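pasting for the record
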Amino acid sequence: MVLFVVLSSNAAPRYDGEMRDAASHDQLSSKLRMAQQSDPIKDSGPAIGEIEKDPASAQHKRSLLDSSAILCFRGELTLVPKRAVLHVPEHLEKRFGVNGKVEVKSWQDFYAANRGWIRPLEVTRDEAFGFKPLSEAKLEAIKESTTVIVATFKNGPIAVRPYVDPSEEAASSDKSETPTPLLK
């Protein structure tokens, strides 16, 4: 007796709603026909604006290769932002650009394999955006370095915009009304 009570409590839940048959093909096709005949998009008229011009075409002018410095050595290549490379000694200039058949690597993998001639220099976000100048210690380290120095933020390469003193920026903006172009 107890067993019966337990089994009935675990049975599938009852559906108290009205049971209906599935829609037939004729019913579905007639609903589709009615929906197509009363399509509000067809009745809205011609499109407004430039429909012939692709809005994404404005972004096609940017090129990843044009805005990147290519570091290449021993058949491996990586891309970093151009402004991320802060210092290149003369004897290491030949390691920029594509040299023969290469395999593209991520920054982390490329740096791990080439840490002998690359030195990452961790910068702050304000230094990278040009809101604050690089510290004197960092500038001195850049001048004395015999390795390629790449600016990094949280271990990834980052472009560093030049610092512009706000007082100089205000004085230069008073003289001309032309906006400063965006840096690539």
